Amino acid sequence: MWCTVRAFFDNGGKQALVVRVRAPSPHNRRTTGLPGSRARKTGLYALERVERFNLLCLTPVTPGADVPIPTYRKALAYCQERRAMLLIDPPAEWEPSSSTLVHGFVNQLIPSPDALGRPAANAMMYFPRIWVDDPVITGALHMIGPSGAVAGVIARTDETRGVWKAPAGTEATVAGVSKLRFMMSEDDVASLSSQGVNCLRPVLDRVVVWGARTLDGHNELGSEWKYLNVRRFALFLESSIREGLTWVALEPNEEPLWMKVRQVVEQFLHEQWKHGVLSGIKPDEAFFVKCDQTTMTQQDLEQGRLVCLIGIAPIRPAEFIIVRIVKETANYLP
Fold it and tell me: Are residues 149 and 28 part of one domain?
């Protein structure tokens, strides 16, 4: 774990919550701390103790091994619930020609469609694994998954450019890498990218992140959440708007409230547009906000649930991605 944590901070990460888990006992395999207990807030669910996190990395209990897919599945569901992104390390057996294995891996990770959305949009994978030096033993190297280092690159990009900037390209240098496990051809990189897997590759004398897709980024899927920066920007907007609407819990779910919500959300999105992070010459090409009787069912109204629909155009003017915000009002009935 320490190698992954160090890689995060070496690449620009500023704040991390590190959760230690028990290694499996030869006598009781159930002593492992992943995924943990939500009730006891252990393992993965230690994150219940923090108000917000946006990136999650898991390291295997045994160095060099793989995190089990069922554990990743639990973590992905939790990230979807918490509006965060899961960084997945490639299986140890994968080689540059393993792009044909990606589809099977994603199908195991997400065995059936999810009525609550597209879980793969909250996950990203980077290839290959990396070798890092041992800070104590001169000349010793450790092979680790790249997730910690890439999380640091993402954190650095967020701070210097903003969450809407793709953390990839020549600016997305990865520090602390002694060497990549594999060197890849242009065809290897293109093949993996078409499957939604991002690559690390050498450019001149540096290693850089080359690609910014989610695992929903397979070329044939045509997902609106294909690109990591689009997905993360939408999650940022959703979290910010939800937090900015906490006051609706004290208001009745009626037209005066809906009008005020529209005004507040429109003002927030207008500021995003003015800063150039939404496309469009005019505001109505960049975003829209709906919060009225058409966005809520009769059951929503009776149970006091406010539903606000926002459309954002992060890539092209008037090509809107829809984000649905649901909040409980004063007359909420569970």
Answer: yes
How far apart CA 193 and CA 216 sit, in angstroms, is 11
Q: Do 211 and 114 share a structural domain?
A: yes
Domain-located, residue 240: no
Report if residue 255 sits inside a domain.
yes
What is the CA 43 to chain-centroid distance, rounded?
A: 19
Q: How far apart are the C-alpha atoms of 66 and 36, rounded to whole Å?
A: 18
Which token pair is 28? 């009781």
Token pair for 128: 């290959």
Do 291 and 155 share a structural domain?
A: no
DSSP per residue, 198-239: EEEEEETTEEEEE--B-TT--TTT--TT-BHHHHHHHHHHHH
User: Residue 303: which residues within 8 A CB-CB, separation 6 or more?
Assistant: 332, 333, 334
Q: Which residues of the chain have pLDDT under 50?
A: 29-32, 115-116
CA nearest to 210, candidates 162, 257, 174, 235: 174
| Ramachandran category for residue 118: left, alpha or beta (phi over 0 → left; psi -120 to 50 → alpha) | beta
From CA 2, how far away is CA 132, in angstroms rounded?
11
Look-up: residue for tokens 């899927």?
221
Find the largest Cα–Cα distance for the chain: 68
290: DSSP letter = E
Q: Is 142 exposed, middle or buried (0-12, 13-18, 19+ CB in 10 A)?
A: middle
- The DSSP element (H or E) to which 271 belongs, if any, is helix 255-274
